[in-house]
Amino acid sequence: MSSGVSAKKGETGKRSNILLSILAIAVLIGVAFASGQYYFGSFTESAGSSGATTTTGEVGATIGGPFKLIDQHGNVVTDVDFRGKYMLVFFGYTFCPDVCPTGLARNSEALELLGEKGDNIVPIFISVDPERDTVELLKNFADFFHPRLVALTGEKDMITEVAKAYRVYYAKVVEPDNKDDEMYLIDHSAITYLMGPDGKYIRHFGHNLSAERMAELLRESL
After folding, report:
1. pTM of the predicted model, to two decimals?
2. Which residues lie below 8 Å from residue 57, measured CB to CB, with a gap of 6+?
């Protein structure tokens, strides 16, 4: 009898430890997420009946700003170089396994659907992985998605500054047992921004928006 009771107590203790571990992990994830949202700003997206993406509060008024980066051809590029044209800005990295390829492919398709009306829009990809995303890598990457895609990288502090200006969250994710410094993922927000010919924010598009709907919203904004 006593051995049976001890066994049940042992099982209960194990279950309690497992639950405590799960709760601890959940708390840590929540704190990390909240910290990232607090530092970079947060968006509230709503599809509504129109399917348009919007921002709430004062975040929209402060999205974007000046930058000085390096493109896939090794040229210094600033935000001023795009004055008079719309910028369709997406942040990511070339080693991204799914979100970046999907997002860039969607953006390219939306531009194609616009036809000549989209000629005044410059698709821009800004890498949040300057350690690995060299100029050579960016060139091959950009050529794969769109002939007009401008891929940008730069020094770490330059990327940090432009990401902060656009309220983009990103963080390196390294597995505890990983012994290869080159093998890591980057957790990052997947929002595409439309900036006007004056360089100011117009609207943003969520990752799950279809190319067709995105093209409709872009057409409304031009």
Report:
1. 0.73
2. 44
| Among 145, 148, 167, CA closest to 82 | 148
Determine contact, residues 148/118, Cβ cutoff 8 Å.
Answer: no
**Residue 190 three-state SS:** coil
List C-alpha distances in Å: 188 to 9, 61, 129, 157, 185. 44, 22, 11, 17, 10
Look at residue 58 and give its three-state secondary structure.
coil
Q: Which domains does the chain have, with CATH numbers?
A: 60-221 (3.40.30.10)
Q: What pLDDT, in 10s, does the model give residues 16-41?
A: 443 333 333 333 333 333 334 334 44
Spatial CA neighbour of 203 closest among 51, 62, 53, 57: 53
Model confidence over 58-115: pLDDT tens digits? 444 589 999 999 999 999 999 999 999 999 999 999 999 889 999 999 999 999 999 9
